[in-house]
Design goal:
This protein has 235 residues and is of the alpha/beta class. It is 49% helix and 15% strand. α3 links the parallel β4 and β5. The chain starts with a strand and ends with a helix.
Length: 235
């Protein structure tokens, strides 16, 4: 989170300088989509929210990497189907930079493989562009607060993909420590590391280490996979 300058937020390109801070806490947002009209419409929605600050727009994966690397926004909203470097390639490249930014996909694709790949590559959410604008905005605000967001009609896709390996992993639950099991339950509630740390009274860094151990023990590649898997176990 950063403090927001009063007035209309500036647009960053890879050559821009971020705004000076003031007093209102906001979540900084980077919008990545190669369709100008989509970016304009979403930017107008975001600007209506005091708790969100659109600090940059990128029309390509490489431009997104440049802006994210310089300013590390709290939230990156990423299209899947872009010319050149597509959304999945961009997502992988962003995760390789080990940024703390949360990344959600906003796309027209409800293809099962796209959904599973995005989550596997480290996306913190997957939303469809055909959702009502008000609902998209609500999900963006939830993501900015550290929650995982998935379009409701896609949850079965994730559940099905993870259920395929569910039986093999069930016995692995017993290998988790009590603290790891506690953190896994918090992950399944959609909480970020920061929120989990606050809930359990431990540091962000400690939570991050536990999450890495959990994923390794359960042979999962992302916290969203872990969350859906845990929900399936409880079902």
């Amino acid at each position: 989170m950063r403090n927001r300058q009063a007035g209309t937020p500036a647009r960053l390109t890879s050559e821009s300088v971020p705004m000076s801070p003031n007093t209102t806490q906001t979540a900084t947002v980077l919008l990545v989509d190669d369709h100008p009209l989509l970016r304009k419409g979403l930017a107008q929605l975001i600007e209506l929210e005091d708790e969100l600050e659109l600090i940059g727009e990128a029309s390509s994966g490489q431009e997104a990497l440049n802006i994210a690397d310089k300013f590390e926004p709290d939230l990156i909203i990423l299209d899947l189907n872009m010319q050149g470097m597509d959304g999945l390639e961009t997502l992988k490249a962003l995760r390789e930079k080990d940024l703390s930014s949360r990344i959600i996909m906003l796309t027209v694709s409800d293809n099962d493989e796209d959904v599973v790949c995005a989550i596997t590559y480290g996306a913190d959410g997957y939303l469809l562009k055909d959702m009502d604008p008000e609902l998209i905005l609500e999900k963006i605000k939830e993501a900015a607060l550290g929650k995982m967001v998935i379009s409701e009609k896609l949850t079965h896709v994730l559940a099905g993909a993870i259920r395929k390996g569910g039986n093999a992993k069930t016995s692995l639950l017993a290998t988790l420590t009590s603290r790891e099991h506690e953190i896994l339950k918090q992950i399944s509630r959609g909480l970020s590391n920061k929120l989990i740390a606050r809930e359990l009274g431990i540091s962000d860094g400690t939570v991050k280490v536990h999450v890495k151990h959990i994923l390794k023990k359960l042979n999962l590649r992302s916290r969203v996979e872990a969350a859906v898997w845990m929900v399936n176990q409880a079902a």
